[in-house]
Design brief:
mainly alpha; two-stranded antiparallel sheet; 11 helices; globular
């Protein structure tokens, strides 16, 4: 089952994900076993690790809803570290790449789903939620153009993470988020990056303005009013993002 996550046939990988979901749902002990096995990764195998991230997001989401056998503030978080580090660096290579024998490999998007699941787990530490939110925002400024739904997934992950701890927004200055360059977040804003950032902010605006339900978890993110912390943060972010002079906030 776990070996099939690296299978070149997309249908085999999808079947493996369904089998992992069924196994984790059936037994709390199976949750712990799957978590331990899936967190052993080979970061050089982009296809395998991308689907491991997706599989792990399923296991963590199921545990948060029921068994609660994982402690993501303890040893389990240390096991997660390599996968989260892989996600933080995924902006340095193309997120979705098409290969004739494997289909779409979406490391940025799958990592965003893992981050959202980790952030929603009740045992995840506040500092981890903050770091994941920062990483999601930084990945929106990658130096390749998003081709699939990476920006949408990053925006949803950011919205879920900040819904868990709304005060995180007070610590994230949007004026600094896309000007920081570091080994963990190497891409500096440029023409392509700003297009990605603007798409990320538009998706975030849609989520916060209208509210959404996440089908996999049933989590409701309610619409935010104009005076909310989220709306204020978004206005600051849009004001700091280059819009090529076509319009400006009133």
């Amino acid at each position: 089952m776990l070996g099939d996550l690296a299978n070149p046939d997309p249908s085999v990988r999808e079947r493996a994900l369904k089998e992992i979901e069924s196994a984790a749902t059936a037994d709390g002990d199976e949750v712990a076993r799957l978590f331990t096995q899936v967190t052993v990764i080979d970061p050089t195998d982009q296809m395998a690790v991308s689907y491991q991230a997706l599989a792990l997001s399923i296991v963590i989401r199921i545990d948060a809803a029921g068994p609660n056998v994982l402690d993501l503030d303890g040893d389990a978080h240390r096991r997660l570290a390599s996968l989260l580090a892989w996600w933080a660096s995924s902006g340095t290579h193309p997120g979705p790449t098409w290969q004739q024998d494997t289909g779409w490999l979406d490391s940025v998007g799958h990592g965003a789903e893992l981050a959202a699941a980790v952030g929603q787990h009740p045992t995840t530490a506040r500092a981890v939620v903050l770091e994941l939110a920062v990483t999601a925002a930084h990945l929106a400024a990658t130096d390749h153009r998003f081709l699939a739904s990476e920006g949408e997934r990053l925006a949803l992950a950011f919205a879920l993470l900040t819904a868990r701890l709304p005060e995180v927004l007070d610590e994230l200055d949007p004026g600094d988020l896309w000007e920081t360059t570091s080994p963990e977040h190497p891409a500096a804003p440029g023409w392509e990056s700003n297009l990605n950032v603007q798409a990320f902010l538009r998706d975030l605006a849609t989520i916060w303005q209208f509210g959404v339900t996440v089908p996999e978890t049933g989590i409701d993110l309610p619409a935010r009013d104009a005076g909310s912390r989220e709306s204020g943060w978004l206005r600051r972010a849009l004001a700091d993002t280059d819009t090529s002079g076509l319009w400006r906030l009133g």
